[in-house]
Design brief:
The complex is a heterodimer of chains A (81) and B (576).
Chain A lengths: L3 H7 L1 H4 L5 H13 L1 H19 L7 H18 L3
Chain B lengths: L15 H7 L4 H4 L5 H16 L6 H15 L2 H6 L12 H12 L6 H9 L4 H24 L43 H10 L4 H4 L5 H14 L8 H14 L3 H13 L4 H10 L7 H10 L15 H6 L4 H24 L37 H8 L6 H20 L2 H18 L9 H20 L32 H14 L2 H12 L4 H8 L3 H23 L13
Helix pairs in contact in B: 1-3, 3-8, 3-11, 4-6, 4-8, 6-8, 8-17, 9-11, 12-13, 12-14, 12-17, 13-14, 19-20, 19-21, 19-23, 20-21, 21-24, 22-25, 23-25, 24-25
Classes of the chains: A mainly alpha (81), B mainly alpha (576).
Chain lengths: 81, 576
């Protein structure tokens, strides 16, 4: 059976539901027996959900327009008349 | 012509070999006087291939050089190899047809072409000499097309050799070399083999298969020693990238396989080399190197490239000096030489090739690009707008800025860790994208291309500010193991207010080491697919997956104290 280190090195595709059936079976065999890795899988999934749903690195609509205007003004200034 | 360096006729040298070969030092070499070691290497090759007469006469080799000059559109090389007595065709049409095919359609050359030469009475030694002459012709034409020397005084411009009657290839036959019988094995102290073992770690088949002419192998090792190996101008890796790029453009599986392996021995991961081969514009290289590759790419001989458009001024604008430009051109010329040799000899790869070029890679139109669709990908939601902007509709670009400013800003904030900087640089990224949109050819989605510009721009700024921060590095450079191994609450979101969650994620992401942070940003925050993130970062898909997993686990570690389920602490849990 896989060790925890081997499990942790391999379970990226499993999180994305992209692991091959063989890899998935080996990972689940380990998971079935290992409470610690169950916790890590569960909390990593929650981390992904948490990060994905947070607007930590984005602009609000009223912040977008000044950027659009600044870019287009600079482009139009450079454009040959 | 004469557009690179003002040619003067001052004496350079001593290059007696050139005087012996041509009766004078041609302008092509005078123009390289700021890089004498290149002239020296070229001279040795010319002495070995053009001047020494083993089986083919000098006059006949001049005919072969002119066939290459016609294929490459080099008036200079046609004049340089003009002969006093006219070509009487005594060498027969089979050899001329072979040279024409090797010069113009190298990827199609196969063992049948070599067998046709044998059937016409050419032995392996003569065939090798003919292949060498065509390869040297390619080297000289590459130099001439890039450097644009003035015609040498007193030389006539000969008429074009008529190529009518020589069929265009229609069938791609899988190469099954080697085409020539093996030559004698050299003595154990044969210096060129010692050079290859020392520099490459092995003796490539391409050189072993020329042992009918050990003097030529020696000259080849010397030109590589003069141009590829020194590190005083361009770096070795930059020159290896030129070899990869030109070889890929020429559809040469062999050279790509060998030099990817050589780069691996220099510590460059295979996936990085693959990125140069597949699309260097998405590779993790500096803007200056990208400009270098943009120009050098024009010097590939396939499809029948004339080097048109090679512009040294663009390289000077990126800070390259004359000797560096000369070295890049010489490296491209040597690569075309080696590619031609391989195509003519059918050398088999020394390593299983990671990338095998096949008929699918042929792009029969005569444009400079290969493997590049001229039409943006139909599943790219930005395709129609991109086409409008490329057609001159500046106002259409506004919609692209509006659609993608959040993504660009997000990428830059994560990279730079500063909202104000990110806002300013976001504008720069769009201005760069607008400036270069004519070059965008739809090989990736527009959004991926834009993200790669954002990453390059942000990384460049980061390197200026924090030289220690790197997005590069091996995957296994730190021994990360999860420490927080207690169960989380079922709905961790409920533990914090929205603004606290936003701050927590921002701080957690910004604390990640750069190489993990950027991957988490692209995949989990900007929602790029693994393939898109890999393309934008110039990484392999496995590398992106490994970094993403590591980044997510590190983030999990930072968030855990907020979300551990209080009633179910399990102090005995541990990794096995």
């Amino acid at each position: 059976m896989l060790s925890c280190a081997e499990f942790l090195a391999e379970f990226g595709d499993y999180l994305e539901e992209a692991a091959s059936p063989e890899v998935r079976a080996r990972l689940e065999e380990h998971l079935h027996e290992c409470k610690t890795c169950q916790v890590i899988v569960d909390s990593t999934r929650k981390t992904i959900r948490f990060v994905t749903d947070c607007d930590s690195f984005t602009l609000t609509a009223d912040q977008v327009e000044p950027i659009v205007n600044a870019v287009m003004n600079r482009i139009r200034e450079k454009k040959p008349r | 012509m004469g557009r690179t360096v003002a040619a003067d006729n001052e004496q350079i040298g001593p290059f007696h070999g050139l005087v012996e070969a041509y009766g004078f030092v041609p302008n092509l070499f005078v123009l390289q006087k700021e890089l004498p070691r290149a002239i020296e290497g070229e001279q040795r090759l010319i002495e070995a291939i053009a001047v020494r007469e083993y089986g083919l006469s000098r006059r006949l080799k001049d005919s072969l050089f002119r066939i290459v000059a016609n294929a490459r559109g080099s008036d200079y090389c046609r004049a340089l190899h003009a002969q006093t007595c006219p070509n009487d065709g005594e060498e027969g049409p089979v050899l001329l047809a072979f040279a024409h095919k090797l010069a113009r359609h190298a990827p199609w050359v196969c063992k049948h072409d070599v067998e046709a030469l044998r059937a016409s009475g050419f032995d392996d030694s003569l065939i090798l000499e003919a292949v060498l002459a065509v390869a040297l012709g390619q080297l000289l034409c590459t130099l001439a097309n890039a450097l644009g020397p003035n015609l040498d005084a007193g030389l006539p411009t000969p008429a074009l050799i008529e190529s009518s009657g020589l069929p265009e290839p229609v069938e791609w036959v899988e190469a099954r070399g080697p085409y020539l019988r093996p030559g004698p094995q050299p003595a154990s102290n044969f210096q060129p083999y010692a050079f290859f073992r020392e520099q490459f770690g092995f003796v490539p088949n391409l050189f072993q298969e020329q042992m009918l002419r050990p003097d030529v192998v020696e000259a080849e090792s010397q030109i590589l020693a003069q141009i590829l190996i020194p590190e005083d101008l361009l770096s070795r890796v930059e020159k290896e990238h030129i070899v990869l790029l030109i070889s890929a453009a020429n559809l040469n599986t062999y050279l790509v396989a060998v030099h990817s392996q050589i780069l691996a021995t220099l510590g460059v991961p295979l996936e990085d080399s693959n990125q140069i081969v597949e699309d260097y514009r998405c590779a993790a290289i500096s803007p200056a190197e990208r400009a270098l590759l943009d120009e050098v790419r024009k010097l590939a001989y396939f499809p029948a490239g004339s080097g048109a458009g090679f512009d040294p001024a663009l390289l000077r604008a990126h800070g390259f000096g004359e000797p560096q430009i000369l070295e890049a051109v010489a490296m491209a010329a040597v690569t075309n030489f080696l590619n031609t040799l391989q195509a003519g000899l059918g050398a088999v790869p020394d390593f299983p090739p990671h990338r095998v070029f096949t008929r699918k890679d042929l792009y029969p139109s005569s444009g400079p690009a290969r493997l590049i669709s001229d039409v943006p990908s139909p599943d790219d939601p930005d395709a129609a707008i991109v086409v409008r902007v490329q057609g001159g509709d500046t106002d259409a670009f506004e919609e692209l800025v509006r659609r993608h400013s959040r993504r660009v800003f997000g990428t830059l904030t994560g990279l730079l860790g500063n909202l104000e900087d990110a806002r300013d640089i976001t504008q720069d990224v769009f201005l760069k994208a607008f400036e270069h949109i004519g070059r965008f050819q739809g090989r990736s989605k527009f959004s991926t291309w834009l993200t790669s510009i954002a990453i390059n721009t942000g990384t460049e700024l980061l390197r200026q500010r924090k030289p220690s921060e790197s997005l590069d590095g091996a995957e296994e450079d730190d021994d990360f193991r999860p420490r927080q191994i207690q169960s989380w609450a079922d709905n961790p979101e409920e533990a914090l207010a929205a603004s606290q969650r936003t701050d927590l994620v921002r701080e957690g992401v910004l604390r990640l080491p750069g190489k993990y942070r950027i991957v988490v940003l692209l995949r989990d925050i900007n929602q790029l697919s693994t393939e898109e993130a890999a393309a934008a970062l110039g990484l392999s898909i496995p590398a992106v997956k490994a970094r993403l997993l590591r980044g997510r686990l590190m983030l999990r570690e930072g968030l855990a104290p907020y979300f551990i389920r209080m009633e179910k602490r399990s102090p005995d849990a541990q990794l096995r």
